[in-house]
Amino acid sequence: xxxxxxxxxxxxxxxxxxxxxxxxxxxxxxxxxxxxxxxxxxxxxxxxxxxxxxxxxxxxxxxxxxxxxxxxxxxxxxxxxxxxxxxxxxxxxxxxxxxxxxxxxxxxxxxxxxxxxxxxxxxxxxxxxxxxxxxxxxxxxxxxxxxxxxxxxxxxxxxxxxxxxxxxxxxxxxxxxxxxxxxxxxxxxxxxxxxxxxxxxxxxxxxxxxxxxxxxxxxxxxxxxxxxxxxxxxxxxxxxxxxxxxxxxxxxxxxxxxxxxxxxxxxxxxxxxxxxxxxxxxxxxxxxxxxxxxxxxxxxxxxxxxxxxxxx
Length: 312
What we know:
By secondary structure, the chain is an all-alpha fold. It has helices at about 5-35, 40-50, 55-60, 65-75, 85-95, 105-120, 130-150, 155-180, 185-190, 195-205, 210-215, 220-230, 240-255, 260-275, 285-310.
């Protein structure tokens, strides 16, 4: 496969996953704000800060109000990470490799983009926001379903899955990093209502609220939340789950291309380190140091994939 085509596939999947992650984060924050009948400007502000584009936001908006933040995250063309920009970039990459995709995969991507484009041409009202966000999440889910159900599990599939899971691991790690102080052992001693609300936001933003409650019968223990999001091998958005998928797809590419790639070595170290740390009591782990290291290694894998497979 040409490097530029691998690059299109890799980043198409990353952009689509990122747009879904952003939609889920807005959903979780909106649920919290509506449940408390309070706009909660601090929580909306934290999304902007976590996005890494707070300086761009501040240059165009005076305050981090709910309406301003939602507009910035959904449709602002000045924000490289707005859902409108991400969906357009995903579709452009998809068009470049249209002949590599099945009709079902292309249609799911194109329809998701068309729905977003039509909905985000104008300011989104709070009344319409929940259904819009749900459509974005559903569109991404349909894409994954079409991918698994209609595509050959070959190198095209591998580059798409690598993009998905590298982006997903990054998102989970950043979500934990942004609120790691809420997951420290001392947080369970405080046990205030607002702390529990923050833990709920983290879980909802990672589509983990219901599955965590199934396993823990409603107990919101900070250590168990951190352990679940980082080390649970059954949870599709846990960092351990993502690292296993990254390693698996790189192994497939290595066997197919009959090469030796440093990206697989880094991915294997990434997965092994997570499995070893999973055996340690979460309360004895330097959570912030661990997350910083995981973010660094995940980014290193992405950069090495670009080098190993000549993505450009």
